[in-house]
Amino acid sequence: MPDFSMALNEDQLALQKWIHEFAADVIRPNAEEWDEKEEFPWPIVQQAAEIGLYGWEFLTEVMMNDPTGVSGVMAIEEIFWGDAGIGMALMGSGLAVAGIAASGTQEQLFEWVPQCYGTVDDVKVGAFCASEPDAGSDVNGYRCRAVYDEATDEWLLNGTKAWITNGGIANVHVVVAVVAPEFGSKGHASFIVPPNTPGLSQGQKYKKHGIRASHTAEVVLDDVRVPGHCLLGGKEKLDERLARVREGKPGNSQAAMQTFEATRPAVGAQAIGVARAALEYSTEYAKERQAFGKPIIMNQGLAFMLADMATEVEASRALVWKAAWLGKQRAFKNAEGSMAKLKAGRTATWVTERAIQILGGYGYTREYPVERWHRDAKIHDIFEGTEQIQQLVISRAISGLRIE
Ligand SMILES: Cc1cc2nc3c(=O)[nH]c(=O)nc-3n(C[C@H](O)[C@H](O)[C@H](O)COP(=O)(O)OP(=O)(O)OC[C@H]3O[C@@H](n4cnc5c(N)ncnc54)[C@H](O)[C@@H]3O)c2cc1C
């Protein structure tokens, strides 16, 4: 196991510089336009693909092929420093990939992950469909059903998924559905819905507070038929798992915990990107803006605010990088992935709110980017497990008790 270190090697520094340039030259200058339009920024994703910053090769070779785990979170922070809405457009397919990786076989990974990204000439996106209109945090409440048709070796999917990033515009939809309702969340399975499958359609597209360039919509599944090989992990493994649940044998909760925890530092890194953007911008603004005959930063009351903001960003990054490293070593002990996401989300929400304060009236207008960053920051307290769900996971991990 390599030692944890926050020192980046030469390759990582070069990667950081390359992504930062794209974020500064392409992502940030386009952020306002796509936020206002509330549309998916296909041309930007295309540009990213052209330079090799979007695609499954980028994911596997640059982000995952790193023994420290830090390259991925470092890359994400830079992208989200550019803009969180466009950032989600670039990273949202990763949710589908994580869903495939969590339950799929090697063969399924190789078949479906590239289809979540398409090619440079024809970029695509993937979607991970778990949440439902009546069940977000409470995964026991999912109603979307998958029923096996033995005669045709097909699964029949029916239900509605809510809040789905890339929902309806994705090439590949990964859908979590109930196969054995009597077992609650232990009776779920994940399915690939291949491109252009009849019966899958987009429901309402949500009008959001922030990350408005990211497409979020309902996904309606109406008698969707998928072939048996689209069940992630395969039928034999599912039958074995359900048999174990039926016999009351415990599942491998330790392995499940390592998988879920490993995706959370990435969300923390997104939040830090937004927070850092706001911190840098408001620091520069405070050095320029004059009041009472001097730059406003010369007042301790304001300079100390910036000092606290910088401290929170650094503390959050330390947690996120450490958690990313623990995730790579599969060495989480006390839900450090959840801790990192919890802390970084709160930091982004707080730092961006303070940035508005520092810009005063200008900060409250759409002429300046800090109000957008504040709107963008808030999602990190909500998706991929709300603040309270992270607290639940952490409190269970540190106590060993089933806290409700
Ligand atoms: C922009 C956006 C993109 C998203 N993308 C995706 C996606 O791609 N795929 C996907 O599957 N989902 C996605 N989601 C859904 C997201 O994960 C859920 O919104 C989130 O899990 C919360 O679920 P909910 O909205 O139903 O809130 P609820 O679960 O109804 O929670 C409401 C409130 O109750 C609190 N609460 C709930 N249970 C407890 C408890 N036991 N103890 C204390 N407090 C509790 C919550 O913390 C929250 O404050 C997305 C959401 C948004 C807004």
Structural summary, described in words:
The protein is an alpha+beta fold and 404 residues long. 54% of the residues lie in helices and 14% in strands. The strands form three sheets. The chain has a four-stranded antiparallel β-sheet, with no helix packed on it. Strand 2 and strand 3 (154-165) form a beta hairpin. Flavin-adenine dinucleotide binds at residues 95, 128-131, 136-138, 163-165, 208, 211, 216, 379, 382-384, 386, 388-389, 392.
Topology (elements, then pairings):
Elements: H1 10-37, H2 42-50, H3 56-64, H4 70-82, H5 84-91, H6 93-103, H7 106-117, E1 126-129, E2 145-149, E3 154-165, E4 172-178, E5 188-193, E6 200-205, E7 216-227, H8 235-246, H9 253-288, E8 290-291, E9 294-295, H10 300-329, H11 336-363, H12 370-377, H13 387-399
Parallel strand pairs: 1-4
Antiparallel strand pairs: 2-3, 3-7, 4-5, 6-7, 8-9
Helix pairs in contact: 1-4, 1-5, 4-5, 4-9, 4-10, 6-7, 9-10, 9-11, 9-12, 10-11, 11-12, 11-13
The structure holds flavin-adenine dinucleotide.
The site of flavin-adenine dinucleotide has 22 residues, from strand 1, strand 3 and helix 13.
